[in-house]
Amino acid sequence: MSNSTSKKKERFTSSGFILAAIGSAVGLGNMWKFPYITGKHGGAAFFLLFIVCLLLVGLPILLAEMTIGRGGRGSASSSFYNLSGNKFWGFLGFLSVLTPFLIMSYYAVVAGWTLHYAVQSFGGALNGQGIDFKQQFVDFAASGMPVVWQAVVMVICGGVIAKGVSGGIEKFNKILIPGFLIILIVLMVRSVSLPGAAAGIEFFLKPDFAKLDAESALVALGHAFFSLSLGMGIMITYGSYVEKQQSLGKATFAIGLGDLIYAFIAGLIIFPTVFSYGLEPGEGVGLAFMALPAAFAQMPFGWLFGGMFFLLLAIAALTSAVSILEVPVAYAMQKWQWSRKKAAVIISTVCFVLGVPAALSVTGVLNSFQPGGKTIFDWFDFSTSYVLMPICGMVVTLFTGYAWKRAGEEAGLKGFGYKLWMVLLRFVSPVLILLIFLYSVGIISV
Ligand code: PFF
């Protein structure tokens, strides 16, 4: 066993753990990706498919990650070693530390954008007639401001993490996640009562089973995986702070349900708003920083609703960013025996420095540097979301399904539940993860 049967006894409370895990799961994926892919791939029909994917792949792997963390009581890397005594698994586990480290570097940039837009909106700067929001985003991203906001994000996340698991991460989520739900509901009520909102609700939810095809299945699978923050070492690390008496099975369902509810409400905000103002629905940057600001600019009290919307995005991004930064911090604390504060400061600084070129590559000075046709920002995204995350997910599945014999005991599963979990982890998840991987890197097309 490694040195990681550590002296640290940092633990979440039971509800704190569930809120922190929901905080991690509910991120920009819920807010700006899920609604769009649902609308595009058949509304309520896709929603049902997504639930099936959560059940078949998402929840079993979520349970596996938390189980590895609690059983191994180490970092996302050493937990594998602690449980198997095998250095090779420890090395594979290290990928679950490298991946979040890279994700944090560019995710902080995006989180910074959301903070900037929240401040701008509350200040009334987005509320004029005839603003070209596309140009405005391009100019903003080309300026030095994103780096300043990225630094703000790193200071917030590093500060929360430096305060520890229960005093920092848990408190942060306990305040923000319920606050988040209140803002979501206020915005949803505003949005569905706009004139012409029904067309948006119809686009989001009208079931169209004819639109379901192999591509929708892969999109739903990939999103089920991403949305639960899998393949990033997060749930392994958070799992290592869970008390033995907590039921991981119940936590798995609570986290899955929480993730689904937040995503669903996000859809009920976005589409009625966009359709009501006759704008094109889209996803990602175009939706959040171009289409929606244009809608808020025309809405009565748009500065307020727009500000609340960007605040919502910022909270979603920050609670996810905290969870991802904790992974390399926990690793450094354990591997090099650093104090939590030292690890938080050093890792945040390194992530910041690594992320600066990504921030400047979107439309800024480094935009013309595009090796292989991708900006630095896009390379960070591609290498992590499409390559490293599926590999990390595969490592978790194979480890729990084949290598670690006592997983069922740690997960609290027996009989049929255990058998089902094993069938899913051994046979179903690996095949599906492989398909997602081959599809997202472009090796297979459907
Ligand atoms: N579950 C998150 C989402 O849906 O946005 C995924 C995530 C991304 C978590 C980036 C953490 C993170 F830093």
Task: Explain what this protein looks like in three dimensions.
The chain has 446 residues and is an all-alpha fold. It has a single domain, classed as Amino acid/polyamine transporter I, CATH 1.20.1740. Helix content is 76%, strand content 0%. It contains 18 helices and no strands. The radius of gyration is 21 Å and the shape is globular. 4-fluoro-L-phenylalanine (PFF) binds next to helix 1, helix 2, helix 5, helix 10 and helix 14.
Summarize the structure.
The chain has 446 residues and is mostly helical. Helices cover 76% and strands 0% of the residues.
Distance between the termini: 45 Å
The unique ligands bound to this protein are:
4-fluoro-L-phenylalanine
**Major sheet, described briefly?**
none
The percent range for helix content is over 70%
What proportion of the residues form beta strands (DSSP E)? under 5%
CATH C-level: Mainly Alpha
As for the number of domains, it is: 1
SSE topology string: HHHHHHHHHHHHHHHHHH
Keywords: Membrane, Symport, Transmembrane, Transmembrane helix, Transport
Subcellular location: Membrane
Family: Belongs to the sodium:neurotransmitter symporter (SNF) (TC 2.A.22) family.
Transmembrane segments: 12-32, 44-68, 88-109, 147-165, 177-205, 217-241, 253-275, 303-331, 343-366, 386-404, 424-444
For the structure shown, list the relevant keywords.
446 residues; mainly alpha; Amino acid/polyamine transporter I; 0% strand; disordered N terminus; binds 4-fluoro-L-phenylalanine
